[in-house]
Each structure stands twice: as C-alpha cells, then as structure tokens.
Amino acid sequence: MELKTPYFLIDEAALEKNLRILKSVSDASGAKILLAQKAYSCFATYPLIAKYLDGTAASGLYEARLGKEHFGKQTHVFSPAFREEETEELAKYCDHVIFNSPAQAKKFAPFFRARNISCGLRVNPERSTQQGHAQYDPCAPCSRLGTTILEFDESVLPLLDGLHMHTLCEQNSDALEETVEALEEKFGKYLSRLRWLNLGGGHHITRGDYDIPRLLSLLVRLRERYGLQIYLEPGEAVVLNAGTLVSRVLDIVQNGMDIAILDASATCHMPDVLEMPYRPPVRNGGAPHEKKYTYRLAGPTCLAGDIIGDYSFDAPLCCGDEIVFEDMALYTMVKTNTFNGMPLPAIALKKEDGSIRVLKTFSYENFKTRLS
C-alpha cells in the first residue's frame, strides 16, 4: 500500500514481541506492568497491549480518560499538581492517584479515598543514576518531582496506600537496584505499612542487553520483604524498536558538506532528537564517514537547528529517495507539532500478515483548528 511520506509505521509483530517479554516479567515476579501513555498513546493498538499488560499510567486528566475508555484495565494517574476543578471528572477514570507532595495528599486524598480510589505519594530517593541528561533526571538537584525524606510528613501515612518512585530513563536493572537501595534507606521503615510500591518507568526491559534476572530478583525481594504489590510503568520498553518514521529526500544542497533536506522534521516530528538529544537509527545508514557518502539529514522548517544528524550511505542520495528512521514509536507521535504549518505524518499499522492499515491521516484542518 502506498502512503504519502512522511508517515509513522507501527510494527504489530515487533510490538507483540516486546509485550511477551514484559508479560514474562510480570508472571515471574508478580509485579503488575502498566503502559506509560506519555511515551505512546496510539489507542488503536490498546486491545493488543491489554492482552499482556495490567493497565495504563497517565500524566493527567486526558491520558487517564484515554486509558479508561480504550484500555479498560487499571488506570493510575500522577501529576506534579492536580487541579481542583478536574478532580470530579478524574475520579471517573482512575483507580490509583499519586500525589507529588504531602500538601497535595492532604488536600485531595480524602476526596479520592471516599470514592474507593487508592492514593499514593511520589517520593524522591535523591540518588541520581543518570549522567548528561539533567532535564530527564527527577533526582537532579532542586527537582520538583517527588517528596524528599526531609519534606516527608508522616501525618499523611493514614491517607496513603502506596509510594511511587520514578527515577530512570532508558536504563538497566543495575540503576533500578541502586535507586531502590536509596529508597529503602530513606523510606524503608514505611513500606511494610503500605499496600503497593510503584517503581515508575525508564526500565529498558525489552532491550537486548537488559538484565532481566537481576530485575526479577529485586522485584521478588521487595514483594516478599514488605508484602507489597509492585508496579512498573514502562513506556519505551513497550514499543522499543516497534515503529519507524518513513521520509523522503526533497533536495540536496552543499555548504561545507552535502545536506539532504527531507520532508520529515526533527522540530515537528521527532522533537527528542533536539530535546534529549537523541540520534535515531537510519535503515542502511551508518555513522559519519563509516560508509562512502556522508550527508547531514535536515528538516524543511525555517529553524536553522532543524537537523536530525549526520549519516553515511553506500550510494549517493538522490531526490525522492526514501529515508527510514527506526525506533520511532516512542516519544514521537505524542510530541508532534505543526510549527511552520508543517503537516503531521500519517500513522499506519503493519499487521502481522504484512498488510498495512492506515490509522490516522491529518490535513490542513488539523493545523488551522488548533488556534482558532
């Protein structure tokens, strides 16, 4: 099936491969695994994901509603600060609500508990295991995310069923083990008084080199020592290497090097390339000068920094050539924007039998109606 570039293509078989790995972790450890919708919220695939996972994690009202309406299992929601005018509607969708501070817990927990919604508090173990990405490190100095032990108020304990900790970003189980050690040092005395512990996301469980036995050992130990239900809420691990962004070359210019201008934009279609920064793999492409012909791949917007990166190829690029960016399901579709009036990529699903199903296309109206 011919699709106009650029478009996202989700690979159903690759997605299900990840889900089987996550389900095996859940079965072996007793932990419940939730889809973090902030990374991926293409709800057309929720029926498949719901066969393997236990629910969704939301960052606010809209994600909570999406999870409730289209996933149909547990819905957990966390926000750095909840809006009082949204609590009535939010209570219709969530099973668990997690507060960022004791003050928020005192303000809102009685309301949610009266509606049989389980309440928790996000804590900050103050043990950073990341380097070079402070904007993705909830344990960075002066972080607003999570309550430190200094700010912890024991008077909120009767309002809580659990604690939540999210400290990782694309990391292995050794980093989780280190932060759990810090969690136990600071908050361990409270854990046996609670019902659940949510270890957040950032676990790269479906990556080839991820140490799953180490993860299982840690999860089982926590469950048995404290009598807790353990939750994990990965986003990236669910759709890792399960999607591509297909683009094509519009023009090639020269200014100190060959620059290929594509119809896909880092700024509009893959913002993590600039924010993270992140270098997406390119199918049949290599590192600069690894292969014979090196090009800078850039987007078509007016932003000078709309640059995806420098890649090399075995043959020269020509106008009309297809460029396929891999690992493009996570933190892409959820972040796209229409800066410069840039059209949004279509979204399609490659079924296990190889057929292509178009899930969503976008038009001028999607740009026009955003602001007026």
From TrEMBL:
Its cofactor is pyridoxal 5'-phosphate. GO terms for biological process: lysine biosynthetic process via diaminopimelate; nor-spermidine biosynthetic process; spermidine biosynthetic process. Keywords: Coiled coil, Decarboxylase, Lyase, Pyridoxal phosphate, Spermidine biosynthesis. It comes from the Bacteria. It is an enzyme of class 4 (lyase). Residues 161-328 form the Orn/DAP/Arg decarboxylase 2 C-terminal domain. Pfam families: Orn_DAP_Arg_deC (PF00278). InterPro entries: Ala_racemase/Decarboxylase_C, De-COase2_C, Nsp_de-COase, PLP-binding_barrel. Residues 166-193 form a coiled coil. This is Carboxynorspermidine decarboxylase. It comes from Candidatus Borkfalkia ceftriaxoniphila.
